[in-house]
Amino acid sequence: MDIDGIRALLADDRPTVGTWLQFPSPDVAELMARAGYDWVAADLEHGSFGPGDLPDIFRAVECGGAAPFARLPEASKTWIKAALEAGAQGLIFPMIESRAQLDRAIDLATYPGQDGWRAAGETAPEYRGVGYCRANVFGKAFDAYREGRAPKLFLVAQIEHIRAVDELDAILAHPRLDAIMVGPYDLSGSMGLTGQFGHPDFLAAMERIKAACARAHARMGLHIVQPDPAALAREIAAGCRFIAYGIDTVFLWRGSERPAGA
């Protein structure tokens, strides 16, 4: 699956399902990509990745037939540039709480001249740095990358704080945003309800998010941390279209624990 395939799924109102990596292992990355997911995201926030790990991780994901994504540790110039230059085809921006934060993150992921979402005559204060890198074959394919793949980067805002829910209409109005992803643990934590996903206040916040996405015709997503096919089916039926399913570490724990009594 590549970005064009992912966009085709969404254009048909079908879900795109990926998974999460925390191990900086190209072998694990390739295995997860070959497991049938559309995209595989390196978790740079909670995983053990450094910038130097990313080229091999992304090569392995592509070898396995999935699109390489990165969940950034922060939506900063340094990390956005590192992930994109290593070859990420999608970025998941963490802790987006306002339209201003999202504007800056998307500016930093966009080459000069590719900010067509802005008003006529309005200039972005910051741009993606221009240079030779793995993503453009160290300059050999710079024009093809800049004009072909770069404008198709898949951009996702994580909604992880109740403040973001209050600002969600403005966030969803960004025309370059491809999807949002709810971070349930951080969202519940911001409400003083860490992990209490059945609490009425948390459920009410989730309904607000779903309603805002429906108003904006935006693609809602979330992370199903504990693999559960029934939960995946329920979320797809409920309208979620950008879903991360499981984590390499969780799959390993669940498959490797010694059976009780053995």
Keywords:
262 residues, alpha/beta, 12 helices, TIM Barrel, eight-stranded parallel β-sheet
Draw up the topology in text.
Elements: H1 3-11, E1 16-21, H2 26-34, E2 39-43, H3 54-63, E3 67-71, H4 77-86, E4 90-93, H5 99-108, H6 142-149, E5 154-159, H7 162-166, H8 168-172, E6 179-182, H9 184-190, H10 200-216, E7 221-224, H11 229-237, E8 242-247, H12 248-256
Parallel strand pairs: 1-2, 1-8, 2-3, 3-4, 4-5, 5-6, 7-8
Please give a structural write-up.
It is a single chain. By secondary structure, the chain is of the alpha/beta class. The chain has a single domain, classed as Phosphoenolpyruvate-binding domains (TIM Barrel, Alpha-Beta Barrel), CATH 3.20.20. It has twelve helices and eight strands. It has helices spanning 3-11, 26-34, 54-63, 77-86, 99-108, 142-149, 162-166, 168-172, 184-190, 200-216, 229-237, 248-256, and strands at residues 16-21, 39-43, 67-71, 90-93, 154-159, 179-182, 221-224, 242-247. It has an eight-stranded parallel sheet with strand order 6-5-4-3-2-1-8-7. α2 runs parallel beside α3. The protein starts with a helix and ends in a 6-residue tail after the last helix. The model has no long low-confidence stretch (mean pLDDT 94).
